[in-house]
Amino acid sequence: MFRWVVAVCLILLAATLAGYTLAGGSERADFAYVNSTGINTLDPAQMSWTPDIRVAINIWEGLTTYDPRTTRPREGAAYLPPDVSADHLTYTFTLRPDARWSNGDPVTSGDFVRAWRRAIEPGTAGDYAFFITDYIAGAGEYYEWRNHNVAALTALNRLARGWGVDDESARSLWGDAELPELAAARPGPEPPTVAEITSLDLDWGAIYRRRFERHAAELDARFVSVGLEAPNDHTLRVMLTRPCPYFLDLCAFAVMLPCHRSIELLREGVGDTGLTPEGLVVYDPQWTKPDYHANGYPGLITNGPYRVADWAFKRRLHLETNPHYWDRESIACRSIDMLVYSDLNTALMAYERGDVDFLPDMSVEYDHQLVELAVTGQRPDFIFPVVFGTYYYIFNCDSETVRGRANPFRDARVRKAFALCIDKRTLTDKVIGRGDPVSQHVIPVGTITGYESPPVAAGDAGEARRLLADAGYAGGRDLPPIDLLYSTGSQHGKVCEYLANTWRLELGVTVELRGKETKTFAEDKVKCNYMIARAGWYGDYADPTTFLDVFATGNGNNDAGYSNPTYDALLARAAAETDAARRMQLLADAEAMLVNDEFPALPLWQYTNLMAVKSHVRGLHPNPRLTFPFRYLSVQR
Amino acid sequence: MTRRIFNRLVWGLVTLGCIYVITFLMVVSAPGNPFAAAERNMPPEVVRALEARYSMDNQAAYFFQFLAGAVRFDFGPSFQYKDWTCSQIIARALPVSLTLGLVAMLIAVLVGVPVGVLSAVRRNSWFDLTSLGFILIGISLPAFVTGSALLIVFAIYLKVLPIGGWGRISQLVLPALTLSLPFMAYIARLTRVGMLDVLGSDFVRTAVAKGLDRRAVIWRHAFRVAFLPVLSYLGPAAAQAMTGSFVVEKVFNVPGLGIHFVDAALNLDRGLIMSCVLAYSAILILFNIIVDLLYAQVDPRIKEAA
Amino acid sequence: MIGAPATSRRAGDRRPERPSSRSWRRFRANRLAGAGTVFVLVATLIAIFALPFSLSWFDVQNATTAVRHAPAVGRVVDQAPYAEAQGSNTPGSWFTWAGPAVYRVASWWGHDNLGRSVLFRCLLGFLVSLVIGLGAAVMSVTIGVLWGAVAALAGGRVDAVMMRIVDVLFGLPYILMVILLKIALEGPLIRLFAGRTQLANVVLLAVAIGAVSWLTMARVIRGQVLSLREQPFIEAARAIGAGRLRILFLHLLPNLVGPIAVYATLVVPQAVLQESFLSFLGIGVQQPVPSLGRLAADGVQAVNTFVGYWWLITFPCLLLVLTLLALNFIGDGLRDAFDPKSRTTLLV
Question: Could you tell me which residues come within 8 angstroms of residue A130 by beta carbon, excluding any fewer than 6 positions away?
Fold first, then answer.
């Protein structure tokens, strides 16, 4: 009997191992680096995470690319400099004739138009659509027009199916000038209530169909009004809404990357219209796979120095050189592996062992030890650069009450009082212990050429108490318990406890900490359901407006609810200013307002990044924007 | 026999249906909006349209839509990994977990059973006592502690095995070993107790008194009786090894389904949560059925009763 | 002779011994179980005695002393300045008289990278783990006993349906269900506890683990009640008109104490182990609340080749192993004492 058992087990084991070896195993690439979160999405129009962007700028090539050392814009698929009109509003790009996709097709201006159009479609739901809607003439209006129609079609679709609609949808239907039946059936100036709409005896199905068909027909005609022209395959003309000195920098970013025409094979939609029942333009999200072949799709085609050869979910992304890339001769590193290690501790051990050549992120528990090794030079392969981002906390500048209590932070004096009494040096040196550089500014100092950060007046706890008394809260009396919102994980909890303690000691206020999971935290932050919240911002392009625009009235990312007409006016004047020096001065004045008087945000430190690069890797230059074009790499083992 | 199998399969499907309902209720009652991004915001019309597209605006419709898709093994897209469908994720990750669990169980049986038998035979010898100590450690130390210890010793200090990952045989050794330890301990314990019982029973003493070869008595006759409780434990144990390897997968960076499920649960990726639960439950139920039938074959008393 | 009622006493008669007393005596004779019980009791007492210190210090970070690396075993860290910042060091408070002696004791097991004493965190963690384990056991006992007893007493269709449900739930992977329950119940429980998230979290874990551990108990209790149901004393009780509930609580439950005790003590170490897995995966006890599993997981994640923080992992793991062993021995001892036929004890 025992022999039977052993025999069965051994046979099963042999069979399993045989199957296992047949399935797995692969060669080591020239260069391997670690990604701890996995690829969120490879769609350039949707991505917003740094690891995704890091891959995208290597497999696609935009009009411009980043210089590996200075991150200034360099030639990409287009020749530099482009033809710029006298009023700085029209850019004419000439594309390289030898720029090719990975299947040999030439890169055309139509590929850029297609990609940028897709980026501003509501169905793509891209975080960076504002790159195009804010800067390219007509794009903002087209985007609004599409959003409005999608809202109307979604509501009509629900009504046609006999489901209810909510207040917002009902209002959007009412404002729609293209529904005469509605106006006729229910005259009157005020928007109807949901009950009224559903009680109307209209043929919703017919209304919906007619509206849908008409909208599908006028899509292309309406897009002509956007300031993008492709007179021939090699020329791309872009019309801007206002002068933009950093437009070439924007062109290198992920959302501006081109898109091959084969994506049209995967467009989902009703019949020939190319629109879903809600009116969205959506493509099968699997178009980013190299081995996806539904409907004759050839798999992912890209035009950058590398192409995706294999993608194993949350395990490995394997890149190989693009055989048709125009500069393929200069690429020294033939294949690249992006390995996913969800535990950074394990990733670090793999690096030590030599399995991995580059660790872009080493935030482990004991990272202050590693920072010491980096800073003292004991480990020359550990690099600790300062990054183009600031860690700050935002005050709720807008809501009257938060969670049932009066919000004191509508008064700038209270905000300034809270900001002035924090000892940031102790925070970074002792509590966190990494020695991140303390920041009194919203924009990281010295990171943008031509921009000088404004001086910040020093303050202390005494002045803070005076300000608080001026605002009517002397000694912390009459202040409700302060709600401090943060996301659990990382070191935010420690920071919040330190802040809470400082405010209690110096100002005599009670602070309640509220730590939430990232997604619930984000929801609360967006809905202004906090008094103070942890925030932060990384710059997207090399201009002060990437940090300052966040605090403009109505900006989509203005979670603090900050609204100041003087500030908005400063930004508007800077946008219209053609002289570069004067423009920078205006922006510095705007920042001075934020960090000296207004304090919608409490800056703590400038983000840093701990990285490790093996000494046999050449061509990888640490820079504040953490962009690493891999085509300049060479690896000598 | 075929009626028995058919019966079990039908009940298995009913069970899966109930599990689907329970999981659905739990998933839709969890708070949080999967479309909320941490740093940027979306206009409300876009959020509404996306919700319509992914059928998040009408729970009842989603219930039936998912069920209809599940029958065709199409579990819809994953919300957090937008480029992948749930079926693709499961198709790649499930075999990994299954292989890991299976190899771990086989190691557990191949090592645990002989250790248990020998412990019983040489009761109170040094072998017995050391194996008892090992058994105690095996059931009291959580897998991430033993796994990390093995990782440090073999992968970092001795450098004979890789840190983790999946693909080569050398990457399979440590995770499978770690996963097998608690089961190995329990199997050894079960075998030992069973053998001790049998060895004290009448028929064994008679056989030995009659002069039968001692080794044959232990390994053939006594073992057959002692092994039955182990066999009945193997079914649920194997299923547990295959569906409960989350911790080992995290320690050794093995791309199995467990770690994807935990991520999905933390990020409220509804489609992936439900498809993982259904996949795991299907495996569990299937395994229980197979082991039930096997046990019926092996144990003549049950076979008689059938 | 299970459930034989105490007979009326006549003068001079020796009272017949209840079977349960015999079992308890067997349990007391079991040396390993005894050692286990002693360990658990002593550890609990020490932990409770140390509560004033552990509760004040388990989340205190040492920001005012220059603590950047986890101080090793024996290095004394003065908690007073930061405790003062926390407002605990008012004149005359126990912090002032506790002083140097307590800080020296606190350094016996070293400190972690926030300057917190590993010893006190372990003691508090021990209590938290025990609370979770006992909570899960109570939960699973309540559901399991009620379910099994009701099924057995009701009989017929109701019984069949209830046991089928148990079969269905057996088909669910254990840790999956715990995770799902945790997500689903998180919102309501936090609202119930008015925002005290840490407390809500601990309760949530106990509830989630208990809610998936009652299945075996239900089956066993059902089996026991089915056999008890036919006993003459139950029939007698029914004959004198006792209602079902009265039968359940007054007559059946006292005789079920044995199996309940056995399976309940099995749930406790299982729950502690499950909680440690969940903490490692990041969904168990949240910072800064310690539990044995949380501390072991943190220790494991602090392991690296640059600096050896051996005290962060050794002491919590040691305590965890000893606790689990003690609980397992107690469970084995109980099983041995109350159900000698089951013969699954480790040491015969």
Answer: A556
Q: How confident is the model at residue A547 (pLDDT cuts 50, 70, 90)?
A: very high
Let me know how many helices (H) and strands (E) chain C has, helices first: 14, 0
A353: nearest CA in chain C? C305
Q: How far is CA C223 from CA B228, C18, C217, C259, in A?
A: 22, 21, 10, 11
Question: Shortest CA distance to A122 belongs to which of B77, B51, B76?
Answer: B51
Amino acid residing at C179: I
What pLDDT digit, counting tens, does each position of B146-186 carry? 998 898 889 888 888 888 888 788 888 999 999 999 999 98
Burial (0-12, 13-18, 19+ Cβ within 10 Å), C112:
buried
Taken in order of first residue, the domains within chain A and their CATH numbers are 2-41+304-385+610-635 (3.40.190.10), 44-52+59-121+228-280 (3.90.76.10), 140-223 (no CATH), 386-608 (3.10.105.10)
Q: Residues of B with CB below 8 A from A172's CB? A: 45
Q: Is A335 helix (H, G, I), strand (E, B) or coil?
A: strand
Which distant-in-sequence residues (6+ apart) come within 8 Å of A253 by Cβ? A53, A62, A128, A131, A540, A541
Whether chain A has a CB inside 8 Å of the CB on C58: the answer is: no
Chain B nearest CA to C331, separation (Å):
13
Whether pTM > 0.95 for this model: the answer is: no
* Axis crossing angle, helix C310-338 with helix C253-281, rounded to the nearest 10: 160
Residues sharing a CB contact under 8 Å with residue A602, sequence separation 6 or more, in sequence order = A392, A393, A394, A395, A415, A418, A419, A422, A532
**Residue with tokens 């309501």, as numbered in its chain:** C188
**Contact (Cβ atoms closer than 8 angstroms) between residue A30 and residue A635:** yes
Beta strands A634-635 and A617-618, pairing class: antiparallel
Residue with tokens 């309760």: C203
Q: How many CB atoms lie within 10 A of CB C160?
A: 12
pLDDT band at C58 (very low <50, low <70, confident <90, very high): low
The secondary element (H helix, E strand) that includes residue B250 is: helix B246-252
Chain C residue whose CA is closest to B26: C184
Q: Classify residue B233 by burial, with Cβ atoms within 10 Å: 0-12, 13-18, 19+.
A: middle
Angle at A596 between CA A590 and CA A599, to 5 degrees: 85
* Rounded Cα–Cα distance for residues A159 and C234 (Å): 63
Taking only residues 239 to 268 of chain B, the set having a beta carbon closer than 8 angstroms to any beta carbon of chain C reads 239-240, 243-244, 246-247, 250, 261-262, 265-266, 268
DSSP-assigned states of every residue in A266-314: GEE-STTS---TTS--EE-GGGG-TT--GGG-------SSEEEEEEETT
Q: pLDDT at position B33, please?
A: 61
Q: Using DSSP bridges, classify how beta strands A83-84 and A90-94 pair: parallel, antiparallel or unpaired.
A: antiparallel
Instruction: Give the separation between CA A201 and CA B33, rounded to whole angstroms.
Output: 34
